[in-house]
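Minutes, project check-in

Agenda point 3 was the complex the collaborators sent over. CS summarized: two entities, 315 residues total, and the question is how they sit relative to each other. Sequences were read into the notes so everyone works from the same version.
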Amino acid sequence: MLDERQLLTVLQHGLPLVSRPYATIAEQIGSTEQEVIDHIAQMQQRGDIKRFGVVVRHRKLGYQSNGMVVWDIPDDRVDELGVCFGKFEFVNLSYRRPRRLPDWPYNLFCMIHGHDREDVMRNLAQMIDSCQAGNIPHAILFSTECYKQRGAVYIHDQTAAGHGA
Amino acid sequence: MNTLHSLDKKIINGLQGGFPLCEHPWEELSRQLDIPADEIIARIDRLMKDGYISRFGPMYNAEKLGGGLTLAAMKVPASRFDEITELVNAFDEVAHNYQRDHILNMWFVIATEKPEQINQVICKIEKQSGLLVYNMPKKEEYFLGLKFEV
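CS then shared the predicted structure for the full assembly.
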């Protein structure tokens, strides 16, 4: 029988670079190759696994600039604009989050990656224009330093997945 | 900055769409990308060693798996920035930490095995630093792509 927790723990370290990776995983958790394949497929269908593939370090790949654009949107327009912004190819994330007044009036967060800041600003202008967001107060926070970029640990024996909390 | 071989780019772009779920995934991928399976494996291995790829495998949905996940920010005085960076990064639960140009100048992700542990981590950081941690958990997700055409 396949133990899901064991599977998740082994998988969070990534897939082994061997000719039959699912068989190797199966061996580690005392299951079968087919069970592992079926279970991962189920988890993808259920949405427990969002994606299966590679996580790239965008800085090393030439996407030097990462701008977090935050918007203070009237509550009745958040969904509409959140969806509209999320459609752009260069928007990697579009989330609604709580305001933290008085310091933080913004309730929608978009992450935009670009090759440089100008690239990011051009993309932002396009979003504002095409989603009719010209009157929405917003700010753009560029990252000036990256202190820690590694996967989150969901199962605490060690490392794992993800960006975009 | 971008010195990737065209085959590396093809592999990265191809893999961001997913990895085949079958007994011989490399052969399947080889057919899709028209690159020999051995070469794909060797190139991924090299890309990981060189740091272009940080992970090769699944990206979990923390909330659906019962975990806690949030984005947190702090207003850190410039004179204390290095000290606080060290303090925050020392937590295993802190995944990404960026300095950003705003009064809220430190932004990081906290991921925990159980949702209630988020507040425990925040309390510890506040206690140890004497600074307020702004907790901004996701309320709605409109899109998560995270694909980078290279």
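Noted in discussion: Strands of chain B lie at 53-60, 68-74, 94-100, 106-112, 133-136, 140-144.
Follow-up: revisit at the next meeting once the mutant set is ready.
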